[in-house]
Amino acid sequence: MKITLSHGAGGAQTQKLIGEFLKLIKNRQVEGGIGLDDLDDCGTIPYQGGQIVFTTDGHTVDPLFFPGGDIGRLSVAGTVNDLTMMGSKAVALSLALVIEEGLEAEILERVFQSINSTCQEAGVAIIAGDTKVVERGAVDKLIITTAGVGLTERVVRDNGVQPGDKIIISGDIGNHGVALLSQREGYDFQTTLESDVAPLNKMLEPVWQLRVHAAKDPTRGGIAMVLNEMAEKSGVNIILAEEKIPLHPEVKGACEMLGLDPFTLANEGKVVMAVHPEDAEEVLKILQQHPYGKKAVICGEALVVEEKKSPKVLVQTDFGKRVVRPPLGEIVPRIC
Amino acid sequence: MKITLSHGAGGAQTQKLIGEFLKLIKNRQVEGGIGLDDLDDCGTIPYQGGQIVFTTDGHTVDPLFFPGGDIGRLSVAGTVNDLTMMGSKAVALSLALVIEEGLEAEILERVFQSINSTCQEAGVAIIAGDTKVVERGAVDKLIITTAGVGLTERVVRDNGVQPGDKIIISGDIGNHGVALLSQREGYDFQTTLESDVAPLNKMLEPVWQLRVHAAKDPTRGGIAMVLNEMAEKSGVNIILAEEKIPLHPEVKGACEMLGLDPFTLANEGKVVMAVHPEDAEEVLKILQQHPYGKKAVICGEALVVEEKKSPKVLVQTDFGKRVVRPPLGEIVPRIC
């Protein structure tokens, strides 16, 4: 059998297969820490009374530069956001570049400038790096793999949602997905939309003192993916009010035109949180004061799962409730 | 200007250029820690009285399976060894795979089995991971980027060599480089030689209590590279006795036949150390008791640099002394 990228059955089978192979790894966690089986945004290592939070992400994006961002900003923000979703303070990143021979040096220079400005914005340092130049045709221009270390004394998990919690989304969904699609050959539509790619650590720093029970950043698979993960792991239902979910008119238009579901589109600068109902308004206020959270909303809540039923995510529309399922396979290949 | 992989001037120019771009990164260290400017094997993050040691490495190797190892073992051992060279206990790794569509699932399964067995041998856990499947032609089969976290209360640097220190090498040099070369098209020679790829953390655990002043693993660029780095950063000369340096007859033969310098060939399971003269014999004994250090030797020492001279590495041969220079550009592309 061959590994495949394709949508539908083939792609899902490949994902399942890689999941099976990952099970071959016997050492899956550090004692007392979060590991592979937790399928959270990061792993953790208990140390000297605190927790070291650790994650990695490989970035391949086509095109390398897109409206609102580029592979450099994406690489830094992606890893900073994963560290942040665990309630930790992101402190240091590593950068591993695989560069295809023949890449214009000027492109690499622009990517480094973007990495630098995003690191400065997020207040994180690059403290380890590696560069490999490979033969022409061996990679598609440039692959950046970042790993990161965050520190915290209290880890926020994605499985801590409690019935009654309010669901908060920090702004418009799907902008990254649509901005990228608009750049692809074969998707012939015009948009002024920009990717939301941004590091969220500074915006979220004050909220970790409040009762945030779960947090995730809805990248690949969109809010459909992360809400289902949160519901399933926490053993709750999540119900959303469709009319409250912030959607840019151009995302709405593109989704209607192309038959896409905005709930499954990627974001690179959004957070989905479950917050104790008494703290929800305060969290909302903190987000709305920050440029990246101006359009933050409370758009749903967590409910007890009915006896003998499985946790699910529902959305209340004008025509009744519908179930929001996690997307199968790749929705839009290689956008984050 | 385009990025190039080629030997000589082009390759050196590309390396210089990437170095220049790296300088664009302003946040280069965590306060009080080791960062990019130190050009050591890892960065460090001070935390709660201890040090978190952090590193990354991208692995592309052709072929994926070679005599004595494969890309999976190489990825784990490479990162474990970098963490180990800082005197830290390697505890956790992350794994980021970029897989080319069309790769046979069976190959991936074998790689995961190898990752698992090497992790078990080294006693480290994989606690974070990421997998991207990319279009055919976008990468050459498989790229594995590992990052790692180690913990220590005392960091061993590569700049701590003192005049009088004994130089220890843990065994035969160049085996990895020659084993890989023998598999390449265009290098038509037969050998039974295997790569030395191995995690060295268990062997080295007991030596960190002794006065080890500097340690490095001589991968790309071989012992010529690491000894020059150690000499230059520490401000000492290093003089080696050529006849003491362990060399497998097949490496010697291949080097003579192909005009290669074994000092510049890659290793993946060796350590070069500078040790206080009173502790050198004890360190040697510890290494020799371990399967990976059976052929360990004391093969040189560090000396004071003459006034107004630069630090250098010399080797005493039957015909006098010669200077050992660090290799320029890529010696043998893509072997680690």
Write up this protein.
Two copies of one chain form a homodimer. Helices cover 27% and strands 26% of the residues of chain A. Chain A is α+β, with helices and mostly antiparallel strands and 336 residues long. Chain A folds into two domains: 31-152, 2-Layer Sandwich (60s Ribosomal Protein L30, Chain: A); 166-324, PurM-like C-terminal domain (Phosphoribosyl-aminoimidazole Synthetase, Chain A, domain 2, Alpha-Beta Complex), CATH 3.90.650. Chain A has a seven-stranded mixed β-sheet. Chain A is globular and about 60 Å long. Chain A starts with 7 loop residues before the first helix and ends in a 13-residue tail after the last strand. Chains A and B meet through helix 1, strand 1, strand 2, strand 5 and helix 3 of A and helix 1, strand 1, strand 2, strand 5 and helix 3 of B.
Structural class of chain A: alpha+beta
Q: What is the assembly state of the chains in this entry?
A: homodimer
First and last CA, distance of chain A: 26 Å
**Helix fraction bin of chain A:** 25-40%
Main sheet attributes: strand count, strand direction, barrel closure of chain A: 7 strands, mixed
The succession of helices and strands of chain A, N to C, reads HEEEEHEHEEEHHEHEHEHEEE
Largest interface: A-B, 84 and 84 residues
Mean pLDDT of chain A: 92
CATH topology of the largest domain in chain A: Phosphoribosyl-aminoimidazole Synthetase, Chain A, domain 2
- Tell the overall outline of chain A: globular
The count of DSSP E runs of length 2 or more, i.e. the number of strands of chain A, is: 14
CATH structural class of the largest domain in chain A: Alpha Beta
Rg of chain A, Cα atoms, Å = 20 Å
Biggest sheet strand line-up of chain A: 9-11-8-12-10-13-14
| Poorly predicted residue ranges of chain A | 331-336
